[in-house]
Specification:
There is one protein chain. The protein is an alpha+beta fold. The chain has two domains: 282 residues, Deoxyribonuclease I, Chain A, CATH 3.60.10; 137 residues, Trefoil (Acidic Fibroblast Growth Factor, subunit A) (Trefoil), CATH 2.80.10. The protein is built from seven helices and 25 strands. The strands form six sheets. A seven-stranded mixed beta sheet has the order 1-6-7-8-9-11-10. Strands 4-5-3-2-13-12 form a six-stranded mixed beta sheet. The longest helix is centred in the middle third of the chain and has 21 residues. The radius of gyration is 24 Å and the shape is elongated. The relative contact order is 0.12.
């Protein structure tokens, strides 16, 4: 590294200290990236599909060479081709050598680099599967600027990527880097990090299968703080299941701070096929590890339910539309049903072939967002999770004693006891307390 580049990086580091310090206690989304993906429409009402995918988590020690205890300028290009053996790669400390890390990868889907050290969070995703949602969230709390792990020198947090394993099956993968250190303040801050993560999973990933990976800086022997919080909400840990019969150890010599945890959902079942410490596969020509963390991998089999793809034709001969395929407003301006007018109709408690009058359903866009009924009568397609405001009761005016069929006329009742309505000017609300012509929609099932 030449002297000018070193000087520039030192200047950037210290220029950014005030930014990192002042933002550590504030909850904010530091970046949200959404990527379009193609989800071709399948046949009408298939029941399920199954396959497998692999996940790698790796702290690549990508600090600038003059700060890093390793040699990332030399090692990162060697790491790059080794990542191709895994379907979904989540890295931490991907700061100053991002281009080198990607130099030999063949993955088609990448998150945007958030920046070098002291600017970015160091979290990135490299995937062979498309992800239509990528969201960065900064921790509300951090501890230490020039001590206790210096965690406040960079905007650490977590990322959410919604990966589409096939054209109707998605899984949410969270990649995180928790506060480090062993002081009482560090343990308290790390506990806050995991509380924030648990709340985010409840909000963003309700109804979804989830995998959580990363440098967690937390062991199961830490007690009820930290990573154990994920176990209490139904997650399983790859190492625990593979090497410790699912039993949480009290011995701090067991386990690792680099972890892969997972949970299934009502529509996608995840089954752990294997979990490995991949350190032997990431050695240089002298047999030396190329980063100061061991990479971990897991392989999952999945079985998913395929729910029908549908469109809603209004009384005005237009179609309900989720602008941008989700993540934006809902209206009924489309005169033909294109991708933004086609949705998954999901009922997690039912066979997809038997969705019927009276069932609670969720309307999911092909990008992975949900219709959401606001208490003030507004409706949008911006919700990430299937929570209460995203639930609708299906009213089938054509037939109440059978499953839905192409051409049925239906209404959707919100949890606020109001109905979705399409106005003649193409505005859409969910503020009607009774059903008239404008609250009825004709289903097309693809």
């Amino acid at each position: 590294m030449n002297a000018m580049k070193q000087l520039t990086q030192v200047f950037v580091l210290f220029l950014s200290l005030s930014i990192a310090f002042t933002s550590c206690s504030k909850l904010e989304d530091i970046e949200e990236i959404e990527k379009e993906a193609s989800h071709p429409t399948n046949g009408r009402l298939k029941s399920s599909s199954s396959a497998s995918f692999s996940v790698l988590t790796y702290n690549v020690s990508g600090l600038a060479d003059f700060i890093s205890g390793g040699n990332p300028a030399v090692n990162t290009p060697k790491i790059s081709p080794l990542l191709n053996d895994y379907d979904i790669v989540n890295v931490q400390e991907d700061f100053n050598y991002h281009d080198e890390l990607l130099s030999a990868t063949v993955h088609s889907y990448l998150s945007d680099h958030s920046g070098e050290m002291a600017i970015g969070d160091g979290l990135n995703t490299i995937s062979k599967f498309p992800f239509t949602i990528f969201k960065r969230v900064k921790w509300e709390d951090c501890n230490g600027v020039f001590s206790n792990g210096s965690d406040c020198l960079t905007p650490k947090g977590f990322c959410l990527a919604r990966h589409w394993l096939n054209d109707h099956t998605c899984v949410d993968i969270y990649n995180l880097h928790a506060d480090s250190g062993t002081s009482p303040a560090d343990y308290s801050t790390r506990d806050s990090n995991f509380n924030q993560l648990v709340d985010a999973i409840a909000l963003y990933s309700a109804g979804h299968a989830v995998v959580v990976v990363g440098d967690m800086n937390s062991l199961f022997c830490d007690g009820e703080i930290g990573v154990r919080k994920l176990l209490t909400i139904g997650f399983q840990d790859g190492w625990l299941e593979t090497y410790n019969s699912g039993v949480q150890p009290d011995n701090c010599e067991e386990g690792s701070i680099d972890k892969i945890l997972f949970r299934s959902s009502g529509t996608v079942d995840l089954s752990l096929l294997g979990f490995l410490n991949e350190s032997d596969n990431f050695l240089d020509e002298n047999g030396v590890e190329m980063a100061d963390h061991d990479p971990r991998s897991a392989e999952f089999a999945y079985t998913s339910i395929e729910f029908p793809t549908i469109s809603f034709k209004t009384a005005h001969n237009t179609f309900l539309r989720a602008n941008l395929n989700g993540g934006d407003y809902v209206n009924s301006s489309a005169t033909t049903p294109g991708p933004w007018e086609q949705f998954f109709l999901i009922n997690p408690d039912s066979d997809p072939n038997t969705i019927k009058h009276g069932d609670v359903v969720y309307v999911q866009t092909k990008k992975g967002y949900y219709f959401s009924a606001q208490p003030n009568g507004g409706i949008d397609g911006e919700a990430l999770g299937a929570n209460a405001w995203e639930a609708f009761t299906l009213i089938n005016h054509t037939a109440s004693d059978r499953s839905i069929a192409d051409g049925d006329v239906v209404s959707l009742k919100s949890v606020h006891n109001t109905y979705i309505v399409s106005e003649p000017d193409n505005d859409v609300f969910v503020d009607r307390t009774a059903i008239g012509a404008w609250e009825k929609f004709t289903l097309s099932i693809y």
